[in-house]
Specification:
Elements (H helix, E strand, L loop, with lengths): L1 H24 L1 H30 L6 H8 L1 H10 L4 H13 L5 H29 L5 H16 L2 H20 L7 H18 L4 H12 L9 H40 L1
Helix pairs in contact: 1-2, 1-5, 1-11, 2-3, 2-4, 2-6, 2-7, 2-10, 3-9, 4-9, 5-6, 5-11, 6-10, 7-10, 8-9, 8-11, 10-11
């Protein structure tokens, strides 16, 4: 099992270096890939909250579970459709830097670019949703706006720790399937891990970014303002960074360091 784990970590390293190569070749293309990733998250947000809204209108306890299940479409789109997500990069780039394959300055620059690209994609997707007119009525967007309102009222410290737990699970959703064979098991594992983070109430900075962007082009509550969004995204982003960088990147590097040395000897 350890050999399989180490092999998967080598795939993480290769992925980080591939992303770095794209970054060096063209910052614009890197930004475009990051924008694409948050647009895929946007698709997940729409399908999750539109599905959940049917149950929300009936005051059903299944509103959140149904949203959690359908949100899994987002991670499949990112894994198979491409894109560059800040939250996953916190794991990939940290691990590559600890392995001395990337310089920390390069890592920070790529984090910043991927985060900016994710913002661009979230805003662009929200504008596209607004132009469709499909999400304008309270009978359709009530569940989304209620969740957005709850997110801006949560205490800062709670948002921070929810962010840690969230990205820990999300990075596992990308990492664990690397050891699996066949697309079916991989997709099932991804959707299961995403369901776990969503149903648990953890906070994902890019998913929140998309949720807020969509909310703000609708008739949203006054609380969903720029200051409310910042109140949420700052602690959640820092938490996500720790969840991916420390709980995944550093932890797996430290736990498997002797096995990397053995591999390199051969």
């Amino acid at each position: 099992m350890i050999a399989v784990e180490v092999q998967a970590l080598m795939e993480v390293e290769k992925l980080a270096l591939k992303k770095h190569k794209i970054f060096k070749q063209s910052k614009t293309r890197y930004l475009a890939r990051a924008a694409l990733a948050s647009m895929f998250i946007g698709f997940g947000v729409i399908v999750a909250f539109k599905t959940g809204n049917f149950f929300y209108l009936e005051h059903s306890p299944f509103a959140y579970p149904m949203a959690a299940i359908t949100f899994g479409a987002a991670i499949i789109l990112i894994a198979y459709g491409g894109g560059d997500l800040f939250t996953g990069n916190t794991f990939y780039y940290t691990f590559a830097a600890l392995r001395k394959k990337l310089a920390w300055l390069q890592v920070v620059r790529m984090w910043v670019y991927s985060y900016i690209g994710n913002i661009i994609g979230a805003v662009a997707f929200a504008v596209l949703i607004y132009t469709t007119g499909l999400f304008n009525e309270p009978s359709v967007n009530g569940f989304l706006l209620k969740v957005a309102d709850q997110k801006v009222h949560a205490p800062t410290s709670e948002l921070f720790f929810r962010g840690i737990l969230c990205n820990w699970l999300v990075c596992l959703a990308f990492f664990v399937p690397m050891s699996m064979k066949g697309d079916g098991p991989k997709m099932f594992a991804m959707v299961l891990f995403v369901f776990c983070f969503f149903i648990s109430g953890y906070e994902h900075s890019i998913a929140n970014m998309c949720t807020f962007a969509i909310s703000m082009v609708l008739a949203h509550p006054d609380s969903v303002s720029l200051s409310g969004v910042i109140h949420n995204l700052v602690p959640v982003t820092i938490g996500n960074l720790i969840g991916g960088g420390i709980m995944m990147g550093w932890m797996y590097f430290y736990a498997n360091k002797p096995f990397f040395a053995e591999q390199e000897e051969f």
